[in-house]
Amino acid sequence: MNPVAATELLARSATLTSVGWIGYIIIGAIAGWIAGKIMNAQYGLLTDIVVGVVGALIGGFVLSFFLDTAGGGWWFTLFSAVLGSVILLWLVRTLGGRGA
């Protein structure tokens, strides 16, 4: 991957909102918990936070192709984090993770 493509990938995956790091952790925990309920996966709080924060990056990346993700707030960040978390849990299950 060339440096320009890598920079664009990172820029697309970072949802630029005003929630801050503590907000991302809180939203990550909520999104990871919601995604766990949707995907019927039982994990602990720390895993929910990690899945939610990584899911927010995935969701922000996917939605950046269709929407202006920089204008989002708490609710948009939560929506994109849940979407990305569901995608992440699906990928983990598909690739042979423990999942349930």
Automatic annotation (TrEMBL):
- Please state the protein's primary subcellular location: membrane
Record's bilayer topology term = Multi-pass membrane protein
The answer to whether UniProt assigns keyword Membrane to this entry is yes
Q: Which UniProt keywords apply?
A: Cell membrane, Membrane, Transmembrane, Transmembrane helix
One Pfam family it belongs to: Transgly_assoc
Q: Does the keyword Transport apply?
A: no
Q: Which residues cross the membrane?
A: 18-36, 43-67, 73-92
Subcellular locations according to the entry: Cell membrane
Q: Which family does it belong to?
A: Belongs to the UPF0410 family.
The protein, known as:
GlsB/YeaQ/YmgE family stress response membrane protein
Source organism phylogeny: Bacteria, Bacillati, Actinomycetota, Actinomycetes, Mycobacteriales
